[in-house]
Amino acid sequence: MQTGIWISLIIYFAAMLGIGFYAWRKATANSEQYMLGGRDLPPAVAALSAGASDMSGWLLLGLPGALYAAGLVEAWIGVGLFIGALINWIVVAPRLREQTERYDNALTIPEFLGNRFPSQATSLRMVSAIIIVLFFAVYTASGLVAGGKLFSSAFAGDYQVGVWLTLGIVLAYTVVGGFLAVCLTDFVQGFIMMLALIIMPAVVLFAGDGGGFVQAGQTLSNVEGFTLSWWTPDMTFIGWLSLMAWGLGYFGQPHIIVRFMAVRSVKEVPTARNIAMAWMGISLIGAIGVGILGRAYVERSGIVLEDAETIFILLAETLFPAIITGFLFAALLAAIMSTVSSQLLVSSSSLAEDFYRLLVNKKASDKAIVTVGRIAVVAVGAVAAFIAGDPDSQVLGLVANAWAGFGAAFGPLMILSLTWSRMTGAGAVAGLVVGAATVIAWISLGWNASFLGGPGIYEIIPGFLFAMAAIVMVSLVTEAKGEFRALVAD
Fold first, then answer.
1. Is 420 left (phi over 0), alpha (psi -120 to 50) or beta?
2. What is the pLDDT of residues 435-485, one digit of tens each?
3. Is 199 contained in some domain?
4. Residue 325, in any domain of the structure
5. For labelling alongside 451, which of 66, 178, 205, 277 has CA 20 to 30 A away?
6. What pTM value is reported for the model?
7. How many domains does the chain have?
């Protein structure tokens, strides 16, 4: 059994490293190529790269685990994410692609904000870079936790070894191949993830004494605390809104929206959008199926599953021959590594462009920036591995915190900076600070778990609203200083 699994995984690892080497030969000559692939991504690559870098280990571990534990009511997360992603592609993608190039060919989100609001350029680049590195350390840790869980659950290995092994493989192709390597591996990994999420629910549905949807429904109807309803008697409007609010996070995720900056042309954004949304819809339905049908299989088989987030791993080991199990584990690794590599690269780009070039060496050559970026990838990865040291960490919980941090800090800022000409640099800084601070305070006070004696409110909701209000109010009372250049309407 183990031999067949390892054969599949070795083939997968070799393919990812081969792509990294190809990208190193093709697109790491200067900072634009290393950080944005020369702004030459075909629509399909940009689409699947955005999707794969978004749908991390939480798609195959966290989301199925939530559905496994509570039932269909948790699927509202997927609905919110789908709506948010669609609006993000329509509103943000074409504008960001055009404006980042027009505003002095910005290579990072902080650099774009600095160019867009020159009166607060240094403050914006510094604050946004700090937020990016801070929350990405937590977000990257969630991926490494997923890698550790795979290694310990599937191979009875040491959790810490799994964390560092996952990080080591990602570093190997990210450090060498840069943005192009990350996007090309995402493209391949996106296909692997989607195939796995099509295959597994179909097999689980008729596994063993199967019986299809009817028997699955009958089995699950007797499980205490589990529901096949989209709404339960104890679910409040706030609870529903907290699930749907995941969609707000899309507008502020640097590792996703940076793909918009790299699409080959604005005209090709709609094609990329259609591909991305089709991929996302199929993948989310598959993940929901894994959680729901997986719970039915476990209950029917009398299996004891201690960690709901390992249901995908259990099904892969139990229902498939070794060579296919290896492929499914490769899909899980693809989900993990595609996101981790994207997050590390965005973090390193900010450290190189928005710290090193801005504060240390303003005349740094492209070669020096690429070198600093590679060092930063390793450094951020090491910090994330330290955060991921607790094997009891929950993937979905870590993702939820980081997702909210980015969504609240950058979401309102990106939407308004791309669409509202009255916005000022002071307003932009206020939005960043208020959004991030609100999320951190909300989590620290425990209000995401319980608020005023009632159910908790997901921290992205107050963070997003307060940041939006801060931007509007401060912009209206502060003076514009060369910041009202025309914005593109479409």
1. beta
2. 999 999 999 998 888 887 777 899 999 999 999 999 999 999 998 766 655
3. yes
4. yes
5. 66
6. 0.82
7. 1
